[in-house]
Design goal:
Layout lengths: L8 E4 L32 H7 L2 H6 L2 E4 L12 H11 L4 E6 L6 H11 L6 E5 L7 H4 L5 H13 L4 E6 L8 H11 L3 E5 L10 E4 L5 E5 L26 H4 L3 H5 L7 H6 L7 E3 L3 H5 L1 E4 L5 E2 L15 H13 L12 H15 L10 H7 E3 L8 H4 L1
Parallel strand pairs: 1-2, 1-10, 2-3, 3-4, 4-5, 5-6
Antiparallel strand pairs: 7-8, 9-12, 10-11
The chain binds S-adenosylmethionine and iron/sulfur cluster (2 copies).
Length: 385
């Protein structure tokens, strides 16, 4: 598994707070309340300096400030954190992901000026439409404030990327958005295909009381075919040979989140024993994931330990698995150095790839990076590394 000396990329979740409540973001329930299981946190500058010492910062070439549960701009120390990074590795390829609706022009001018001194840095603004549509997915983001913020950042010398998730309600606006991006001085315009149309091929939006408001439809012209299926309608099939054709992920094929108890679903992990881990992204990109509590993980998938929500039994199980194998406090870089965590925790993940579930395999790797082979073999650890 990845060694400390070989880490080249860092995915850093500076905060799990957010001003928005996008309907399929794991931080909230269908765009309504923040999930009860999530206890939002942000890292301070002091935390970051402890977690990412100068020697590690100097060896890293790419840093992705994004995260699973929040928006990095919610971190009150973000300017200090970027100054710390700039001082020690100004050539770092730094990318910050944000909805852009947080803070004011003064902040964005400061951030733009600072990032202008880092030639390989950029901010990706997640803007899914125009004035009349962006808020339909980016619930709570005010258009006027967002546009002022982005313009202040660009005017101060920052490099901006527009990331446009294409839905049914905004697909007619792509060309206008491209034009606006040009006028404002964005560097790049990207079109993305959203996932998680989990309710009969649609997303659901509810209010803070859980009352249904509307559905969000996928775009007619999707960049990739849509395989997400309503959880309700999944019949578990132990012979999931055509899993990649039928389902968007093995997870969708294996789990039925509404109709089975946690214990029943956990038993299903036994049925994945013949599914092998195909490609470990953490190894491929030499990347580690740092969550906003200071937890260190091989990847963002395993970084989902903030939210033990029952409809996602693999997350509940994963957290329990860490606690029982290495202990949650022992994977936290506020308690011990990353090097030690990587030496004690990461090998246990890799060893699990060759085990059956009963022997102690963590199902997350299979659900996220697994592929079923027709003859049902599992590669050996030696072959994978
Ligand atoms: C949890 S967000 C954190 C960063 C920041 N708050 C943002 O939204 O850009 C991580 C990434 O997930 C993306 N995202 C949110 N909902 C998505 C969906 N349904 N399909 C694909 N990407 C999605 C966001 O646009 C962002 O790039
Ligand atoms: S802006 Fe990002 S973190 Fe915030 S709710 Fe949307 S996807 Fe989640
Ligand atoms: S889920 Fe497991 S196999 Fe996939 S990238 Fe993460 S550690 Fe590697």
């Amino acid at each position: 598994m990845l060694k400390y000396e070989d880490v080249k990329q860092v995915h850093l979740e500076l905060s799990s707070h957010c001003n928005s409540s996008c309907p399929t973001c794991p931080r909230n329930v269908d765009g309504g309340i923040v999930s009860h299981e999530l206890k939002p946190t942000s890292l301070s500058l002091e935390d970051v300096m402890k977690i990412l010492p100068v020697d590690l910062l100097k060896q890293v070439s790419i840093m992705n400030m994004c995260g699973n549960y929040g928006d990095p701009i919610m971190c009150k120390d973000i300017i200090g954190v970027i100054r710390y990074i700039q001082k020690n590795n100004y050539l770092l390829e730094l990318n910050i992901h944000t909805n852009g609706g947080i803070r004011d022009e003064e902040f964005w001018t400061r951030l733009g000026s600072l990032m202008a001194t880092m030639p390989n840095s950029s901010v990706t603004f997640s803007i899914d439409g125009l004035a009349d549509t962006n808020h339909l997915y980016r619930i709570g983001v005010e258009w006027d404030r967002l546009i002022k913020n982005v313009q202040a950042f660009i005017n101060a010398g920052g490099t901006a990327i527009w990331d446009f998730l294409v839905f049914g309600h905004n697909e007619h606006q792509i060309n206008d958005a491209r034009r606006l991006a040009d006028e404002m001085g964005f560097n790049t315009f990207l079109e993305g295909t959203p996932h998680s149309f989990n309710y009969n091929g649609k997303m659901r939006v509810v209010d803070r009381n859980g009352k249904f408001i509307r559905h969000i439809e996928p775009a007619k012209k999707l960049a990739r075919p849509l395989h997400d299926i309503t959880y309700n309608s999944i019949d578990f099939d132990t012979n999931i040979n055509s899993v990649s054709e039928k389902y968007s992920s093995i997870r969708m094929a294996v789990l039925d989140k509404n109709h089975r108890s946690y214990d029943d679903q956990i038993k299903k992990f036994n049925d994945m024993d013949h599914v092998e881990v195909q490609e470990c992204t953490a190894i491929r990109f030499s990347e580690i994931y740092i969550d906003s509590d200071g937890g260190i993980h091989p990847c963002c998938y395993l970084g989902h330990i903030n939210k033990d929500i029952l409809p996602m039994p693999e997350l509940v199980y994963h957290k329990k698995w860490i606690d029982e194998t290495v202990g949650l406090e022992n994977i936290n870089a506020l308690n011990k150095p990353i090097k030690e965590i990587m030496e004690s925790y990461f090998p246990t993940i890799k060893q699990g790839w060759n085990k059956t579930f009963a022997q102690g395999r963590n199902p997350m790797c299979v659900l996220k990076c697994g592929i079923q082979r027709p003859n049902g073999f599992i590669r050996t650890t030696e072959q994978i590394s």
